[in-house]
Amino acid sequence: MSDENIQVLQLTFDAQQMGAPLQHEIKVDGVSSLQTAGRFAGSYILFYGQEMQIKVTAYCDAEVSIQLMDLALISTPVNVASMKPLYDLSPYDTNSAGYIIRDWKPSEGPSPGNFRRHLDSLPSSDPQVKYFEAAHRPLITVPNGLWQVSGYLSVKVSGLPDTDPYCRVYTFDPSVVVGGGGNPR
Fold it and tell me: Are 184 and 144 in contact, with CB atoms under 8 Å apart?
């Protein structure tokens, strides 16, 4: 991958949050790629031929252990008038709507100043932040298209007092666009 257009999908959750939604953001070269106006307002822009780094931040108490089981990315092509009847099923694979990541490695977090600010904002008396990164980066293999992506992060949580280990699913659902959004076929 070149040093241009470094794409990062950042997912964040708290192990004790009540709901399933993940905070999510896609950044390109450190800046959000969310379009706020125009044809693709509300969609994140991705770049053809580039890999996407996937990072996960988990907030939890000190005694809690977090294990990422997998991340499933399910893409649905958006049917817009400018697209032909043939669709590429996802931005990662023309023949499959699903992409699953099972291999994770520990990752470095933000700078110490930002880390302290994150910890100070947590309600826990002994907060911890754990960082993970996908061991493999999906490659954007489709030059043009618009998709609704549904993401499902499976997590195993253990170490909570008086609680057996349990699994949870956290979700997110951004729209993503590559190229001009239309199918080139």
Answer: yes
pLDDT at residue number 133:
97
The dihedrals phi and psi of 34, each to the nearest 5 degrees, come to: -70, 125
| C-beta separation of 64 from 166 below 8 A | no
Q: Which domain holds residue 156?
A: 7-178
Task: Tell me how far apart the alpha carbons of residues 85 and 43 are, in angstroms, rounded to a whole number.
Answer: 22
Its sign, for the CA torsion 116, 119, 121, 126, is negative
Distances from the Cα of 25 to the Cαs of 53, 57, 182, in angstroms?
12, 12, 23
* Bridge partners of residue 14, in order along the sequence: 59
Q: pTM score, two decimals?
A: 0.85
Confirm whether 47 is domain-assigned: yes
Please give the tally of structural domains in the chain: 1
